[in-house]
Design goal:
Layout (H helix, E strand, L loop, with lengths): L4 E5 L2 E5 L4 H31 L4 H16 L2 H12 L2 E5 L2 E4 L1 E2 L2 E2 L6 H21 L11
Antiparallel strand pairs: 1-2, 2-3, 3-4, 5-6
Length: about 140
């Protein structure tokens, strides 16, 4: 069975691989506070939209998300991104090359947007079903 998902970003094809179970655990526990805030943003934004309430409630939820992201240490942030990029490959002609090796990115054209998009894809693909049971990532694209 093929455990990879392909995504296209900035004209390049990428394959998202599988994180080892222990790595999934470490990524999940570091992301849990942030993902809890994503739920709060979705809940408050939906309530404000449905009731046409004061948008300050939604802004307050976004502030909570920003705080949760800001409170992630640099080490935790780098662990999450690096662990996710470790399982991504990029098509180079007929071959697939690792995006990250020997402690760094292998392609100079990968910018912040691509890096975070790939990280997101790995998290959703590897941890989505775990968090979906807790409604943390069930409709993340809709938020």
């Amino acid at each position: 069975m093929d455990d990879t998902k392909e995504v296209a970003l900035n004209g390049h094809a990428y394959r998202v691989g599988r994180l080892a179970p222990m790595t999934q655990f470490h990524v999940a526990r570091r992301l849990a506070p942030v993902l809890l805030q994503v739920v709060n943003v979705k809940d408050l934004a939906g309530a404000a939209s449905a009731a046409k309430d004061d948008p300050t409630q939604a802004l307050a939820a976004l502030g909570g998300l920003a705080t949760a992201l800001r409170q992630l240490s640099d080490d935790d942030s780098e662990y999450i991104v690096n662990a996710c990029l470790d399982v991504v490959t990029r098509q180079q002609g007929e071959r697939w090359a690792r995006v990250r090796a020997t402690g760094g990115l292998m392609f100079q054209d990968i910018d912040l947007n691509v890096m975070l998009s790939l990280t997101y894809e790995v998290v959703v693909d590897n941890l989505g079903s775990f968090f979906q049971g807790n409604q943390l990532m069930s409709n993340s694209a809709e938020a």
